[in-house]
Amino acid sequence: MHQSSSSLLILILFVFSTIINGHQYTFDWKKLPKVNHLLEKFTNETNTPCLIAGIRVGDLNGGWVEWTGSFGSYADIENNIRCSSQTMLKVASVSKAIGSALIARLVEQGKLSWDLDISHYIPKDLFPKKTYANKTVNITLRQLITHQSGIRHSNDKDFMHDWEFRIKNSTQLLSWFADDPLLFEPGHGYHYSNNGWSLIGAIVESIENRPYHLVLEDFMRNIIGMPSATSESRDHLIMNHGQQYRIVDGNVLPPNIVDILRPYPHWPAGGVVARIEDLLIYGQQMLSSYNSFQSNGKSILKQSTINEMWNYHNSNVSINEETMKIFNEIIHKIKFRYVMGWQRRDFPTDIQHKHFSILNELYYLSHTGEIGSANAKLAIFPTFNFTFAIITNRGSLKNHMDRLAIETLYYLFS
Ligand SMILES: *[C@@H]1O[C@H](CO)[C@@H](O)[C@H](O)[C@H]1NC(C)=O
Ligand SMILES: *[C@@H]1O[C@H](CO)[C@@H](O)[C@H](O)[C@H]1NC(C)=O
Ligand SMILES: *[C@@H]1O[C@H](CO)[C@@H](O)[C@H](O)[C@H]1NC(C)=O
Ligand SMILES: *[C@@H]1O[C@H](CO)[C@@H](O)[C@H](O)[C@H]1NC(C)=O
Ligand SMILES: *[C@@H]1O[C@H](CO)[C@@H](O)[C@H](O)[C@H]1NC(C)=O
Ligand SMILES: *[C@@H]1O[C@H](CO)[C@@H](O)[C@H](O)[C@H]1NC(C)=O
């Protein structure tokens, strides 16, 4: 039994056009039923108990309009609680994209530096000076936030430490990997690492003298203006908190133990719980800063900061090429690189898509969140002034998140 409901925050059915690379794209709310159908069909086909999606778009006149929809039947199957736009779910690694704005703001304020060795912030007894190929090396915040530090990713064993003692902050996580060898010389490779983000959390704790997740909670609430986002912890209740599920051979099951433990100590890498509105507001704030709309100095970040973060490229690290299936067309040679706190994808500039002209020279910044029992995505399309977000309460949907974002963009703009 599946139901869906959707809501338009601002009930003006409007249309506007924008010109990108010589093409005119017309945004039209009348096309929303197509998006609704896309997401409802996807929810049905994947047997997702609860999927919530939303968009927020700048209308060129200083206004923003939003649509959110909830699909599937249950935020909590066992207690018969319906899925709705108010449902709070884990955003998993989308927490990294949110945290990156906090870090960038601390850099703007002069409290942190992208390029200083981390021993400026972390005493050597907590995290020793590292070597690679018998050479002492520096590790920087910039390398941590781009996953170029060479610090290994977390493994399931790391999460089990929480059975032994109660973790209060990110600094306490360092001992889990502090003595492990680097995988490559910092700045000379890419290896996605939750532990790298634990180190970022510890760096923030060293200057703020408070646990990272509490610093982030204040930032999300007071600076970004997210109405309900918080960190998952054993110190408070979370209202409207949906359950997470895993689907095995078509059966809906509770999450694995590791998924229950995971968010608590790993706040910087993935501890945020949010409803869809929170992610959309964050997307708008990033777009506003990027386009420097607010002349009153109220942007959360400087335009130059976002430019640096979203365009970062280290020539020592190769750019990957990806393939994506959009509608029924296979698109090759999509360039993927991890910039500062975000995943960036650039569509090829030498292929002109007849059916999908919107893909010509398209680029976007996004972050995927994935654990065994939750998937999330926040995607920002700067040229379209467009944010798409999705949260779900089951795992293994990661490979569909990007196409859903792009197909939604396509439906609304062409
Ligand atoms: C989704 O499933 C429901 C219930 O089976 C059905 O009524 C609805 O038409 C389906 N929607 C789509 C788009 O397939
Ligand atoms: C994006 O939307 C905002 C808010 O409506 C508007 O002020 C701005 O001009 C738009 N920018 C672009 C590049 O479309
Ligand atoms: C490493 O950091 C120290 C300061 O902590 C600095 O003096 C040194 O130049 C850095 N080395 C490199 C190779 O960047
Ligand atoms: C590091 O030093 C040790 C001992 O001097 C030597 O055996 C080893 O080959 C060196 N490793 C590299 C990668 O240079
Ligand atoms: C790229 O590698 C060279 C040679 O090791 C080094 O000098 C340079 O700093 C590296 N660039 C970055 C961004 O790490
Ligand atoms: C982190 O927790 C440890 C152990 O309880 C404590 O000693 C330390 O002061 C805490 N640091 C921060 C920044 O909360």
From TrEMBL:
GO CC, any one term: mitochondrion
What InterPro entries does UniProt report for this protein, alphabetically?
Beta-lactam-related (IPR001466), Beta-lactam/transpept-like (IPR012338), Mito_Ser_Protease_LACTB (IPR052794)
Organism field: Euroglyphus maynei
The name under which this protein is listed is: Beta-lactamase-related domain-containing protein
Single GO MF descriptor: peptidase activity
**Which Pfam families would you find in this protein's record?**
Beta-lactamase
What processes does the entry annotate via GO biological process terms?
proteolysis; regulation of lipid metabolic process
**Where does the signal sequence lie?**
1-22
What PANTHER family does the record tag this protein with? SERINE BETA-LACTAMASE-LIKE PROTEIN LACTB, MITOCHONDRIAL
Q: Where is the Beta-lactamase-related domain?
A: 52-397
Q: Which UniProt keywords apply?
A: Signal
